[in-house]
Structures are given as structure tokens and as C-alpha cells.
Design brief:
By secondary structure, the protein is α+β, with helices and mostly antiparallel strands. Helices cover about 65% and strands about 15% of the residues. Helix 1 packs parallel to helix 4, helix 8 packs parallel to helix 9 and helix 9 crosses helix 10.
């Protein structure tokens, strides 16, 4: 607000100097005597205007200062006070200009009635130009406060002039007003009895031209910064988004079209971040591949026949563990168990279909096709056995099978899940039960081993044939050629 007051002071001094020294009129004894009196009145009025301006600013910004000290989002009245402060202060300055203009027109009319109209027009034009300049300057100075008020409060699109209005103000105040003054001097010379000397008229036109150039330059810089600064900010924000940043927001400077653009960007980014978080949560719950497939192809119920490899892993003695340990320790053990499972499965590009209590069902070959599904499942089973052996107090059983199964969305239209149903799933589950009783703790069916590559088959040994529970045909077993010693547990 001090800068706005200083701008008005500078403008008033320019007008006073122009009226007294720039108008192309011959000096007389009345003008010389009037100059001393008017200078004293001018100085007193400047002091009065300064006190009124500062008092009005303190009164108008009282609620804004209270909000800044309190913190948090502003109330509606505090937000309006922050956003309308430049305009209200500029109106106060305009009123002081008009009051001062009336005073000086009255003083001039007493001694030189012929100059009264000229002084009135000059003061009116200067008041209009200074009003627009101080308003735009105040908006620039209070931009951080306005940005915070708009960011933390409710956005209102009627709180500031638009881009077109700003450009019109720049043209009108920086070009139209000074040129109108030059035109007025020329019209006065041509249509009245006042005859200006050629040198005096030239100096007056030159003074108006210099003021026009300076004012137009300053107003253009203010207007361009009001438009270009938020656009640069948006450009930087978009570049950050393109580099993968999330949670990107920009400050909302005002209620114009630029402000609406900034608000739209912030809302778009908030919705984008929310959708991204939903996709991440969706992927964490159903698996990244299933999430991508659902986004690409939809979520209709049904399935398709796929050749898949199934890995089933289950803890040994989980019932006793839950009975003997505190619940938080059981949860920590389960989380560590599942963490290792997910890490190993991800390494071999499998899909953890579901966690079932203390067990996990892993699929290779769905939802994404994998011609090497048996190889990946067998390699994951071997690595998983060694990785889980490092967890103290944990013993497991792992079963691997392969074959044709139905993979798809199973359930009701309101609630369903992507899963795999078929003989390989049942066989892997039964192999897991049997593996808990075998030293290797890992068993695979010969069907899985048959379709694996030669290198992976070299890590396995074929064994006896058994009839698994619930199955009518025999299953030939296979187990890793090398495995750690199983931990002793009770189940």
C-alpha cells in the first residue's frame, strides 16, 4: 500500500508541475501570486491525503492481517477483503484525486477563470490514469496474499477483471489519456481565443508525449506480468507432470480467466492424482497385470481357457503359531512371509492371485500369456524355498502344477474377482499338503516339469507316483535336487 501511495504522490507532483509549468500560457502577476498560495495548499493537501490513504488501508486490511496472524483458511469476508483490497484502495485514491481536483479548480477559478476548465480536465485525466495504475500495481504487490486467499478459500470467478479488460485498461490509461491531452491542447489552440506560443505548445506536447511513453511502458510491463507469470507457472507445472511428478499444484492469482485456468489445472491434477491412487490401490489388491487388463478390456464376468502354471504356498503349523504367539507377532510373521512371496513372484513375472489366510495362490500365464509359464513357476518355487527359509520360526509347503484352466472374472456383477479355476489349481493345492510332509518342502507334478525347458528340468528330480486326495488319476512327483533342511515345527 505504501507503493500505491508513493505512485499517487508522484502523479500528483507531475500534474501540479504540468499545470503550473507545462501549460503553454504566458505568466502574469496573478499566476505568480497564485503559484505560492497553491503550492502551500498543495503541500497541506498531500499530507491530508496521505493520512486518509494510510488510515483507509489499515481499516480495509484489518481483517486480512487478522487472518494472516490466525492462520488457516480465510472466512468469506476475509477472502473478499484480501482480493478486493487493491480496488478499494484505488477507489480511495480516486476519491482523494477528485476532491483535490475540485479544490484546485476552485482556487484557479478565483484568479484565472479561463484556466479552470483546463485544470479540471487535466486533473480528471490524471486521476483516471493514476487510478488504473495504482489498481494494477496493488494487484501485483498483493498477489501472494490473493493467491493464498484463493487457494485456501472458495474460488469466485467475479473477483477480478478479465484479460480483455486489463488490456483495454492498459491501452486507455497508457495511450488514450495522454493522446487525448495532446488533442485537447491542439483543439484549444484552434477553436479558442487562447493563442499559445509555438515553443510553449511544443514543450507541452513533448511533456505529454514523454509521460505517455513512460506510463504506457510501466502499464504494459504490469499487464504482461499479470498474464505471463501464471502462464509460465502453468508451463513449469506441466513440465513437472511430464517428468512424472505427482501432487503438482499452482497458485491461483486472481478470479480472471487466468485464475480459472489455474483452478482448472489444480482440479484436473487432483482428480488425476486420485485416479492414480485408485489405480495403485486397485493394482495392489488385484495385481498390476489384472488392473491393466481391466482398464484396457473392461470387467465383464466370464473367463477364457488358458495354459497356466500354478504355484501354491502354505505355512506349516500356522494354527499352533496363532495359539502360542501374540496377535501382533502373528501379523508381523504373515506380512514378512507374504512380502517374500511377492518379491520372488514379481522377480519371475508371476501374478499373486490371492492371499488365503496363511497361504498364497500364484499364477503364471494369466492374465498375461506366458509360453514359459512352467519354467518360471518351477524356478520361483526353488528360489522361494530358500528365501522363506531365512525367516525364523517359519516352515512352509510349496506345490507346483501346470495345465489348462479357466481364467477370468468370477463372481456377481456387483462383486467379483479375477481368478483361475481348474485342475492345475486343485493339484497344486494337494501337492502343497503333501509337501509339508516331505523333506524338500517343495513338490511339483510331472506335467509342470514336462513343459519346462531343459535347464530348469535339470534342477529337479522325478520321484514316485501317488494318488492325491480328491483326484482319480495318479500324479508323478518331482522335487528340487537341492533344498535347505526343513525347520522342525508342530502343526
Amino acid at each position: 500500500m505504501v507503493s500505491m501511495g508513493a505512485s499517487n504522490l508522484f502523479g500528483a507532483m507531475l500534474v501540479f508541475a504540468f499545470v503550473r509549468y507545462g501549460l503553454p500560457i504566458e505568466e502574469s502577476e496573478n499566476i505568480i501570486a497564485d503559484r505560492v498560495r497553491n503550492f502551500a495548499v498543495f503541500a497541506v493537501y498531500l499530507g491530508f491525503a496521505g493520512v486518509v490513504s494510510l488510515s483507509a488501508a489499515a481499516l480495509m486490511l484489518r481483517s486480512v492481517v487478522r487472518w494472516q496472524l490466525r492462520g488457516g483458511p480465510p472466512t468469506r469476508s476475509e477472502q473478499m477483503a484480501a482480493l478486493h483490497a487493491p480496488l478499494r484502495q484505488a477507489i480511495v485514491h480516486l476519491a482523494l484525486w477528485l476532491l483535490g481536483g475540485v479544490l484546485f479548480v476552485f482556487l484557479t477559478a478565483e484568479e484565472m477563470p479561463s484556466l479552470a476548465v483546463t485544470v479540471a480536465i487535466t486533473v480528471a485525466m490524471a486521476a483516471t490514469s493514476t487510478f488504473g495504475f495504482t489498481y494494477m500495481l496493488g494487484e501485483r504487490i498483493l498477489r501472494p496474499v490473493a493467491a493464498r486467499a484463493l487457494s485456501e478459500g472458495r474460488f469466485d470467478r467475479t473477483m477480478a477483471p478479465g484479460v480483455g479488460t486489463r488490456l483495454a485498461m492498459t491501452w486507455g490509461l497508457g495511450t488514450l489519456m495522454p493522446v487525448a491531452g495532446i488533442v485537447l491542447l491542439c483543439v484549444t489552440q484552434l477553436t479558442t481565443d487562447n493563442e499559445f506560443g509555438s515553443d510553449a505548445l511544443a514543450w507541452s506536447v513533448l511533456a505529454l508525449a514523454v509521460m505517455s511513453i513512460g506510463l504506457a511502458l510501466v502499464l504494459s510491463l504490469l499487464t504482461s506480468s499479470q498474464i505471463s507469470d501464471p502462464i509460465k507457472q502453468l508451463r513449469w507445472a506441466i513440465e513437472r507432470v511430464q517428468r512424472g511428478a505427482s501432487g503438482v499444484q499452482v497458485e491461483v492469482f486472481d478470479g480472471s480467466e487466468i485464475g480459472r485456468l489455474q483452478v482448472g489445472f489444480n482440479r484436473m491434477m487432483s482428480e488425476s492424482d486420485e485416479r492414480r491412487r485408485l489405480r495403485e490401490l486397485f493394482g495392489q489388491h488385484v495385481g498390476e497385470d489384472v488392473a491393466r487388463r481391466a482398464l484396457q478390456y473392461g470387467t465383464e464376468l466370464g473367463g477364457e481357457t488358458r495354459y497356466v502354471a500354478v504355484l501354491f504356498v502354505d505355512m506349516v503349523g500356522s494354527t499352533a503359531t496363532a495359539a502360542e504367539r501374540p496377535p501382533n507377532e502373528v501379523v508381523e510373521l504373515l506380512n514378512e512371509f507374504f512380502r517374500v512371496v511377492v518379491d520372488v513372484v514379481d522377480k519371475h513375472h508371476g501374478f499373486v492371485n490371492k492371499f488365503m489366510g496363511d497361504a498364497a495362490l500364484v499364477i503364471f500365464g494369466a492374465p498375461l500369456d506366458r509360453p514359459d509359464a512352467p519354467t518360471a513357476a518351477l524356478a520361483a518355487a526353488r528360489e522361494l524355498r530358500f528365501a522363506l527359509d531365512e525367516i525364523t520360526g517359519l516352515d512352509i509347503g510349496i506345490g507346483v502344477s501346470a495345465g489348462l484352466a479357466v481364467a477370468g472374472n468370477i463372481g456377481a456383477a456387483e462383486r467379483f474377482e479375477y481368478t483361475v479355476i481348474g485342475d492345475p489349481v486343485n493339484e497344486a493345492s494337494r501337492l502343497t499338503e503333501l509337501a509339508k510332509l516331505r523333506p524338500s518342502r517343495v513338490l511339483a507334478s510331472s506335467s509342470a516339469l514336462y513343459f519346462a525347458d531343459d535347464e530348469e528340468r535339470g534342477h529337479w528330480e522325478l520321484g514316485d507316483e501317488v494318488q492325491l486326495r480328491g483326484r482319480g488319476r495318479m500324479t508323478q512327483l518331482a522335487w528340487p535336487a537341492r533344498s535347505p533342511e526343513p525347520a522342525s515345527t508342530t502343526g
